[in-house]
Automatic annotation (TrEMBL):
It is an enzyme of class 2 (transferase). It comes from Halorubrum trapanicum. It is found in: Cytoplasm. This is Phosphoenolpyruvate-protein phosphotransferase. Keywords: Cytoplasm, Kinase, Magnesium, Metal-binding, Phosphotransferase system, Sugar transport, Transferase, Transport. The active site is at C257 (proton donor). General (non sugar-specific) component of the phosphoenolpyruvate-dependent sugar phosphotransferase system (sugar PTS). This major carbohydrate active-transport system catalyzes the phosphorylation of incoming sugar substrates concomitantly with their translocation across the cell membrane. Enzyme I transfers the phosphoryl group from phosphoenolpyruvate (PEP) to the phosphoryl carrier protein (HPr). Its cofactor is Mg(2+). Residues 13-296 form the PEP-utilising enzyme C-terminal domain. GO terms for biological process: phosphoenolpyruvate-dependent sugar phosphotransferase system. Its EC number is 2.7.3.9. The chain holds residues 246 to 572 of 572 of the full protein.
């Protein structure tokens, strides 16, 4: 009823002409798991693990991380849970890790770079927890993704680390399994080599908050340049298209977990661009599910073609039939 929020759709949805699109939730802490399930999310498309590391004196233990991951799997027993490995640096400082003193932290040591380099120890501990969780009752549905990838070599090294952690666990006689592995596409570099990334992985998930920041050279947290941080700029749309088109040639699937995914006014465009999954804050799940049911996949595809041909944000808004709005 009006004023009480949209009715929840708990089953999976497809477009009016039958193309399934998963609608998952972004979750940033254990307390958000049940609300996400109650909103009808088809699993978790982005489990941000940073909350385990911030506001404390020391990193979480393997046991603590294992408990959290298995709690997420239990909250969604039938659905995929995509856990992102630690994504610190940039706007996400962690005091005890000494990430200070970089002139441009967003262009510095952050995301998977830290996991492969100076914080390989934390990465291995987290992977041990993840691989053990993957062997539990609902662990089949666990997927793991790496943040802020720019180079194919990073993915290769991350996958090698997963394999070596699996070998260690096997030597120790510890139950484990290797989950599906993916990368976030949130840099222009990743979008341009999405084909090579998808060849090596099970899935890609686009983080439009960072992607718009890096494509547009506009700090995502700086109000003074908010209009430049624009996911509807044609350059960002073309980066999305480049990514989905590259994945289409592979066996991988492609999702989006940036803020853009949760805007029902953009759902038709995103379906038209070819996303298999959209992951968003739980509150927007019902609206986006409802919108997907109204969309015709062929019409959406031509809408996307028209949007990709635009030269300005204004033209994109016209194509989408939207008034000008904040980026
Ligand atoms: C993104 O960058 O779009 C994203 C989903 O990751 P985060 O917002 O956590 O950086
Ligand atoms: Mg990001």
């Amino acid at each position: 009823a009006e004023g009480t929020g949209p009715a929840v759709i708990s089953e999976r949805v497809a477009t009016a002409d039958g193309r399934p699109v998963e609608v998952a939730a972004n979750v940033g802490g254990e307390s958000e798991l049940d609300p996400a399930a109650e909103r009808g999310a088809d699993g978790i498309g982005l489990f941000r693990t940073e909350f385990l590391f911030i506001d404390r004196e020391a990193p979480p233990t393997e046991a603590e991380q294992y408990e959290t991951i298995t709690a997420a799997l239990s909250a969604f027993p039938e659905d995929r849970v995509v856990v992102r490995t630690l994504d610190i640096g940039g706007d996400k400082p962690v005091p005890y890790l000494d990430l200070s003193d970089e002139p441009n932290p967003f262009l510095g040591r952050r995301g998977v770079r830290l996991s492969l380099d100076e914080h390989a120890d934390l990465f291995e501990t987290q992977l041990r927890a993840l691989l053990r969780a993957a062997a539990t009752e609902h662990g089949d549905d666990l997927a793991v993704m790496f943040p802020l990838v720019t180079r194919v070599e990073e993915v290769e090294r991350a996958v090698e680390t997963v394999e070596s952690v699996a070998a260690d666990l096997a030597d120790e006689g510890v139950d484990h399994a290797v989950p599906d592995l993916g990368a976030m596409v949130e840099t222009p570099a990743a979008a341009f080599v999405a084909d090579a990334l998808a060849d090596r992985l099970d899935f890609l998930s686009v983080g439009t908050n960072d992607l718009a920041q890096y494509v547009m050279a506009a700090d995502r947290g700086n109000d003074a340049v908010a209009e430049y941080h624009d996911p509807l700029h044609p350059a960002v749309l073309r980066a999305l298209d480049r990514t989905t088109a590259a994945v289409e040639e592979t066996d991988a699937w492609v999702g989006m977990c940036g803020e853009m995914a949760g805007d029902p006014a953009l759902t038709e465009l995103l379906v038209g661009l070819g996303f298999d999954e959209l992951s968003m804050s739980a509150v927007t799940v019902p609206d986006v599910k409802r919108r997907i049911r109204e969309v015709d996949a062929d019409a959406a595809a031509s809408l996307a073609i028209d949007a990709l041909a635009c030269e300005t944000r204004g033209e994109v808004l016209d194509v989408l039939g939207l008034d000008d709005r904040e980026g």
